[in-house]
Design brief:
Strands 6-5-4-7-9 form a five-stranded mixed β-sheet. A two-stranded antiparallel ribbon has the order 1-8. Strands 2-3 form a two-stranded antiparallel ribbon. A hairpin with a 2-residue loop joins strand 2 and strand 3. The chain is built from five helices and nine strands. The chain is of the alpha/beta class.
């Protein structure tokens, strides 16, 4: 697993330079295209390995919502990023709730990131999108602001939203009561429930 994580980080760093230049020019970012690798000059950059399931949510996640807003949540359970005995790439269930999603505007991005980024911690930040193509003002503003605060050991990655995020977003936007997770029909090929996860049944 340690080798998978190291490989992910090396390939990610190689791709990040050209990706950053394109985004700074407000060129639409296509997730499926970027994941296939690139040829830059005489160098062939291999595709980024799939993100390990335990790392999918990192420490900070921003989900693009509209042209000027995004949802944000922190994953406090990840701890320091140092590896894991499991090598699967299926996103882990984190019991995300609609109340965990904080809506933010691109008007206060700088101050928000400044307050939530940690100096003494490796910030593993993911920008998630429900669509394959990212071209909103919020996306470009967010990426530039995150890179302003990014330190050497931090990383920023872009991915599609997970099944759990899509489900919670549906309830959040519809202002609906969120069912206990055990009552939701999950596609078990797209989400992994660790053995230590225990569902809390709804009181009768």
């Amino acid at each position: 697993m340690a080798r998978i994580f190291v490989g992910f980080m090396i390939c990610f760093l190689l791709l990040n330079c050209s990706k950053k230049q394109d985004i700074e020019k407000n060129i639409p970012y296509i997730i499926s295209k970027e994941s296939k690798g690139k040829i830059t000059g005489n160098d062939t950059i291999p595709p980024t390995p799939p993100i390990p399931g335990w790392l999918v949510y990192g420490t900070n996640t921003f989900i693009i919502n509209t042209d000027s807003t995004a949802y944000y949540f922190q994953n406090k359970g990840i701890g320091f990023i140092c590896g894991t005995p499991n090598a699967d790439t299926i996103p882990y269930f984190i019991n995300l709730q609609p109340k965990d999603l904080i809506q933010i505007s691109n008007k206060n991005l700088y101050e928000f990131i400044k307050l939530n980024y940690k100096d003494n911690f490796r910030n593993a930040t993911f920008i998630a999108s429900e669509s394959d193509t990212l071209k909103s003002k919020m996306f470009f503003d967010l990426f530039k602001s995150l890179n302003y605060f990014k330190r050497d050991r931090d990383f920023i990655a872009i991915r599609r939203t997970t099944q759990e995020e899509d489900t919670v977003l549906k309830y959040k936007r519809g202002n609906e009561s969120y069912y206990p997770s055990e009552h939701i029909k999950w596609d078990k090929t797209k989400i992994k429930f660790p053995e230590f996860v225990k569902f809390v049944k709804k009181p009768k």
